[in-house]
Queue: 2 jobs
Job 1
Amino acid sequence: MNDVARLAGVSQTTVSFVLNDVEGANIPPETKDRVLAAVKELDYRPNALARGLRSSQTHTIGFVTDRIAITPYAVRTLEGAQDLAWANGYLLLLVNTGGDQRLKQIAVDMMLERQVDGIIYATMYHRPVKPPANMLEVPAVLINCYTDDHSIASVVPDEVLGGRTAVETLLQKGHRRIGFALDSNPVPAAVGRLVGYKQALAASNIPFDPNLVQTAESIASGGYQATMALMSLPDPPTAIFCYNDRMALGAYNALRDLNLAIPDDIAVIGFDNQELIAADIAPPLTTMALPHYEMGQWGVQYLLQLIENPEQTQQNPPIQHILPCPLIERASV
Amino acid sequence: MNDVARLAGVSQTTVSFVLNDVEGANIPPETKDRVLAAVKELDYRPNALARGLRSSQTHTIGFVTDRIAITPYAVRTLEGAQDLAWANGYLLLLVNTGGDQRLKQIAVDMMLERQVDGIIYATMYHRPVKPPANMLEVPAVLINCYTDDHSIASVVPDEVLGGRTAVETLLQKGHRRIGFALDSNPVPAAVGRLVGYKQALAASNIPFDPNLVQTAESIASGGYQATMALMSLPDPPTAIFCYNDRMALGAYNALRDLNLAIPDDIAVIGFDNQELIAADIAPPLTTMALPHYEMGQWGVQYLLQLIENPEQTQQNPPIQHILPCPLIERASV
DNA sequence: TTAAATTACTAATACGTATTAGTAATTCCT
DNA sequence: AGGAATTACTAATACGTATTAGTAATTTAA
């Protein structure tokens, strides 16, 4: 900046004023042009460290996650966050901790050392978390997770509505006996979708039959087992709602082994919209999409509000935002 | 640091010496303990901006990519890079540009403003690139891509060896007529794998039959078409090598429609090891894995060498590292 | 015993910016 | 015409650290 000032024949202060477009500085256009010309001439690039040191903001956001790539579609959270940050002139500082609590602590410390303006904490599965305490030294938002006391702003998918929508889709096609191949782990997604399943049935005055809910591991083999169990019922379902697309893939395998055609003999609906599975199998799978990209966007957008407008944004208790899961119609219903 | 110094009854210089373990500073253990106690007492955390400003290194690496999430398994590149950076006390500053050349330029500028110690440029598909010129102001490494003049260090997968290994696997099982469902785009992966296909045949003295190579779009429907074309040959193959797992999924669909059993009637081998597809379909798909995680690791590891040991590491011409694609045996061969 | 070397520190400074408090010179108002 | 207001700047400083060049006090070597 001093070099630029010298070349333009002004002071470093003036250069700073010009580059930051400081109002009330009264720099006439000719001077501005001279400075800008010098900037171009010298190929000057500001030093964000010095700027950050002086103004104590870095336009950088820390993004902490337990495991980036374990579920591919969840990477879209990162993408949504990155896109929105980028659109606002922010960059993301990334750490995935692999789930180790001590690492999380250290990760946040490293980010705080680098003076991030805020921190996003995202999990790949929807679940409760205990984020490291030091995270609260700056504005923070949780994505796809929440603390039990809801003391931190968060975004999560609407599992209940998602489950209800899936089942309502089947009901609308005339199905009355609807099986549910459910994750045996009582994670928030499983609990919520089951609530939605029951809500939809109740709204159509269909009694809940516990035999129609078969739990298993939430992978293809689990979907296979659950489907086999459902189809061996004395009064088997005409449609199966699968907890996720992996289980739906298992259901496809099972129904093929039973010589049942989808969707003619039996309808299948999934959850997650894992494109590589859902769009490519035969027939293409109708499924519910998780709003990962949108959660990433919302998280960063809200974080930026917290950063730039703390008083107006901060709510008490902190906001818990819920995003719907859109239905992706293909050919399996 | 001044607060710590005051509490410990020493100068800020001494605190700096203690915290950085400066050799030749001759700080006796008692003084060290006093300083460390003050650090703990005050919960002191160094300011990385000030440190970076003074010492001109930030322990931060820029990671630029065209599109993070388009191919889920490719996210493992990011994961490998992040893990190795983390292990060495570095953090990753992330941008995905969506492929816009101007954005790349700006992205790199934003990273340079933040004084990154080096830059990784990664693409999700193996291909030639023209990285922005300003990237070379700091040490740089390309992952899964290369410049035509090979003027920048890079890591790429060994497509030729991968193709050869896939075909050799089929040859070893006794197959003599091996179809190839190939991407119709002449991208490096397609070209390389075809070379490997020919090499393997030649090594077994099997003449190359152009009819056995059917090109199509590298998605499930393309795999379906190519498989149908291959199987309607007067002398159809007994095994099909698919350019990628998505095409293999299409091949599965086609073979099912033809009432052919895998692997009894016909063997199928894929490429990419997209776990969600390969492991979950019936039968599980034998495929070649791309070394994404390893490329990410190698890229950062080499970049750190470039940063910390420029003279010893720098080669002329720059190193072009090639990583093998391991065979993942499942049940389709 | 005394000069030289070592030990255990500290004062001062630079890194590159943003910002505050000013100051001449000009313009405006009555 | 003369004071007030405005314009167009600049000098100086602080942000928090790492590093250089020292300096007293103590220990060692001859």
Job 2
Amino acid sequence: MARQARYGAQSRLRALQSDIMDLILERELEAGDPLPTENELAASLGVGRNTLRESLKVLQAMGVIEIRHGFGMFVAPTNFDALAEGLMFRGRLSLRQNGEDALQLLGIRQALETGLLPAAVAASTPGHLERLAEAVEHLEQLAQAGEHSAAADAEFHRRLFEPLGNELLQQLLGVFGKVHRKIQLEAGPATDDAAAVAALHRKIYDAVAAGDAAAAGGLLASRFEELRAKIGALVAGR
Amino acid sequence: MARQARYGAQSRLRALQSDIMDLILERELEAGDPLPTENELAASLGVGRNTLRESLKVLQAMGVIEIRHGFGMFVAPTNFDALAEGLMFRGRLSLRQNGEDALQLLGIRQALETGLLPAAVAASTPGHLERLAEAVEHLEQLAQAGEHSAAADAEFHRRLFEPLGNELLQQLLGVFGKVHRKIQLEAGPATDDAAAVAALHRKIYDAVAAGDAAAAGGLLASRFEELRAKIGALVAGR
DNA sequence: AAGACAATATCGGATGTCCCACCTCCGCCC
DNA sequence: GGGCGGAGGTGGGACATCCGATATTGTCTT
């Protein structure tokens, strides 16, 4: 089967990825369903195993499939890990140059969160507020212990947009949250102590509870401005 | 160099990707700069060439590097192609099942665009409006010729958010625009004719020119509702 | 009879090697 | 002097082979 006529196409890999995705669609596989083994796939697609593996790794990175060593490959639930990975790299690279990408990355998160806040606030129910309040309290508890938890911060933002009921959107926001934190780490030692962060989130919560999305957005902005200034200083120092 | 102690890590590939990214950062490479050849990289990272290639392909998919056959590998400018690819697959897969992901994908685009519209409208200058008007006219010209151009549609949306001055954000919006159109294609034959689309965009332009972001958002929503209904029907038919 | 441990089967993970395809550039020939 | 062609280098691809991880299964112990 192998070693057939050479196709003129510049890149066979692209086609291979599509073939694999088509195969998944054709066989009506759902998330969690197993794919054929690498050897079977390689044989049925008429390519070498290494070539196939390159495609599979790419598909894994795209969040299409999940590879479990020694067990098999499966259709994966959506995940944006690769996106986050790539963007964080982008940000780091940018910080070593003109900082442009880092600022834009930050800008995306800010635009997304402030843009979506009104809708989230409007769709918020007492139950949502309750959960958001818990997140704030958790943040405050950690702050009292002098700890600075990125996970708790992320959880607050997650719950902030829970009312929208869009899990994919949540993941996307999570990605930019991760990127934000990474850039913050790279840009220099944290200047904000945990207590201040907790207090800020408490204020945001209050604004949300009061249904004032604009105020909440303004509060969110403060954390961005600080980081932007730090990035500006970092870049200027070169 | 090869065959050193086995690392306990579950996956070496992940580490390899990080190593390559670190190498780029350490050598202070910028976008467009060439990377070492595959053989050099494989040797200096102490892995086999095929293993290295898998990582490189993933990095390419993440938009970190650009690979030009027969020429070399280069640090790439940011691009979200892989993201679009993965999400379009997600949408197609979803349409064959419960349609949930497809709806959420649509929801993300809608949330993003309506959420960002106020800021875009506020930041819009006469120059921006001018360019937006041109896009509308182009759309209308095509409509008169009976043509239905996805590119012209995309261009309109691109110019809509140009005032925000965030290229990365533009690319991200572009991704969800692509995903939207793909889902629309997959969900069934277009029910909207080019003239209606052009007319709608004209109305959106008018709203933007009038500084009425809310109205523009409402107009945008109409295209989403139609598609949602189509998806609902498609899924129900199973 | 039930649970823990060990052998094994089944995958994916990694490598080295060989050859092909493609691009670029330099030098030759017209 | 300009265009064409080949040489060299670089990525693309295919095997064959061995390593490593994981789940399962079967047996041994309690």
